[in-house]
Structures are given as structure tokens and as C-alpha cells.
Amino acid sequence: SFTPSGSLSRTSLASEVGVKTQMSGLMKIVVVGTSLKFFTPVLYWLPKSTLAAIILRSTYQLVDFKMARELWQSWKPYHQGGMRRDFIVWWIAFVLTIFLGVLYGIGSAVLASLVMIVHDAAVPRAVTLGCIESLGNIWRDKEVWPEGRVFPGVLIVEFRGPLSFASADWFMDELERKRLVQEKTDKDKVEVVVLSFGSVHDLDKTAIEMLRDLLTEWR
Question: Could you tell me which residue ranges the STAS domain spans (predicted)?
Fold first, then answer.
């Protein structure tokens, strides 16, 4: 049983039959009380496997396999619009709930989600942009749109996420890495760096000082 809400099997059964109000509790009392009072001698010889089958059947709908299939069909990296991380969290909740219990399963899934959120804040994405001429000269992520055109000596980077004390050092290292990669690929020295901050929704004092240091160094 799950203390705050009672038996999961009864909760699932109530949801399946369309219970809407707390009056269902009175009906449960009547049914369970009547069964205990008048049908105990009959139910006494009922095999435990039969009781287990009834409970499993009533809790079957608690597992949303349809969502798991949808997440699996979107098994792509998060930055490509996929739901790989959501699928991993789903499996963590499912497996730990089966083997350890509801509290461990839900708690572990919530903890995994928090870790991913903190990771996104500390290590956001920084992508190199390329010009997609077939779409009206719009700029898109080169990793997703490999046909994007880059110009010799020009590096255009879009930062996606909050730029703060947690991600400032990572941003500097990632920007330097992208500069070296482009110089190695194009055989031209990067003379111009364009930073797109359209997706940056937070900028703290540490990040501003870091940008000033970068500007001074590049000059």
C-alpha cells in the first residue's frame, strides 16, 4: 500500500471505472465490508496466484507503455529535437518502481531530472552556425544542417542557455575549441567571431566580466 493514497490497485481500479468524487470511498467500504462479512469462507480457498493476477490486472494501466513507445521513436539527442533523456528518465522510474517500490522509483526519476537540469545550466549548448541559402539565407546549426555555408575567416557561434558563473569557463573553452576546429577545417585563420546571444535568457556579472576579458584578449 501507498500510505498517502491507499492501495495502488484500488486507486487504479477506481480510475479505470471512471470515479469522479470521494463518494467512491463509501462504495469501497460497502463492497469490502460485505465481502469480509459474508464471503470470507468462499474466498479463503482462493489461490494467492489468482489474487496476484487480479492486482496485476488492476494496476496494468498505471504503466504508460504508449508513452514509452513514443519516446523510443524519438530516440535522438536532445538538441536535435529528440527525447532520449525523457526515455532514460522513464526507464529509471519504471525499473526502480518494479524492484524497489514507488517512492524509490519516483524519487530517483526526479533526482535524475534535476541532475540533467543542473547539467544544462553548467554546460549549455554552443553551436556553430552556417548559412542555409535554400531557405532564404537563414542561419542554422551546422551539426544539424551540414549543408550550411561558412565563410572563410568568420566564426559564428550561437550560445543556447543561461550564461552565468557556472558556465562562463566552459563557454570560453568551447569557443576556443570551435575556433581551432574551424581553422583546421578551412585552413584559414579566424579573423572575425560573431556571437549570437538570442537564446541567452540570463547573463550575470561573472559572464559579463568574462566577455570583457575575451574582447580584450581578441583585440
Answer: 144-219
Sorted by sequence, the CB contacts under 8 Å of residue 58 that are 6+ apart come out as 9, 10, 12, 13, 16
Query: Do 117 and 173 fall into the same domain?
Result: no
Q: For residue 212, what are the CA distances in angstroms to 43, 174, 206, 207? A: 78, 17, 10, 9
Rounded Cα gap, residues 106 and 46, in angstroms? 33
**In terms of domains, do 134 and 118 share one?**
no
Q: How far apart are CA 141 and CA 145, in angstroms?
A: 6
Q: Could you give the count of Cα atoms lying within 13 Å of 141 in the half-sphere of its Cβ?
A: 10
How far is residue 188's CA from residue 179's CA, in Å, rounded to a whole number? 10
Residues 91-104 have a mean pLDDT of: 85
Amino acid at 149: R
Residues 152, 163 within the same domain: yes
Domain that holds residue 127: 123-218
Q: State phi, psi for 197 to the nearest 5 degrees.
A: -110, 25
| Spatial separation of the C-alpha atoms in residues 213 and 209, rounded to whole Å | 6
pLDDT digits (tens, 9 = 90+) for 55-96: 777 667 677 777 777 877 776 665 555 577 788 888 888 888
